[in-house]
Amino acid sequence: MKVVIFGASKGIGLETVRRALEAGYQVRAFARSASAIPDTHPNLEKVDGDALDPEAVRAAIGPGDVVIQALGVSLTPQNVISPVTLFSNATRVLVDAMKEVGATRLICVTGFGAGDSAGRGGFFYQAFGRQGLLKRAYDDKDIQEWIIRRSGLDWTIVRPGILTDGPHTGRYQVLNDPREWRVGKISRANVADFLVKQVESDAHICDTPVLIE
């Protein structure tokens, strides 16, 4: 089985590349700077490309591949002040490409506060995160989730809490019930652990789990 990871050059994407290789999968790492990924492995293929380029995205996916989308944007003044469109536009391109080539399994990282988890993080998270510096990004993540929910694919939307650079421990909470949703910290490595565990699992298809440690 091949796992295609978009946004693979850093953050959660890079950690997912590493966890997927450890799990024995063939991995295609797609990013604008994929060739700069320091890891080498016989099962790793690095593809430089733009997630907004339909031809490049379509060429990176094959029938039956499992796709993990882990895109991110930097917290720059531009992304704080101006509308962010990367998440929604790239997801439209990806969903169309998957349908064209016959790939049906999509695992996507958004974040706690997106979609119907908005407003559940408490005053400070709302004021300084979801409705503060991250507002533009989360407005676009809302659209991204809407696109995925209506895609007809076997999707899982993963909403991690506040991300850290902590180690991979495999110890974290998966909150499925909206009554349990709350903000908390989680390492990017542990998010990656959960993503890879979904590759051959149907436990969270059409589900939106929140992850915290």
From TrEMBL:
Residue stretches making up the NAD(P)-binding domain: 7-201
Gene3D superfamilies according to UniProt: NAD(P)-binding Rossmann-like Domain (3.40.50.720)
CDD domains attached to this UniProt entry: BVR-B_like_SDR_a
Organism domain of life: Bacteria
Pfam families the UniProt entry points to: NAD_binding_10
InterPro entries reported for this sequence: NAD(P)-bd_dom, NAD(P)-bd_dom_sf, Polyketide_Oxido-like
GO molecular function, one term: biliverdin reductase [NAD(P)H] activity
Protein name per UniProt: Putative NADH-flavin reductase
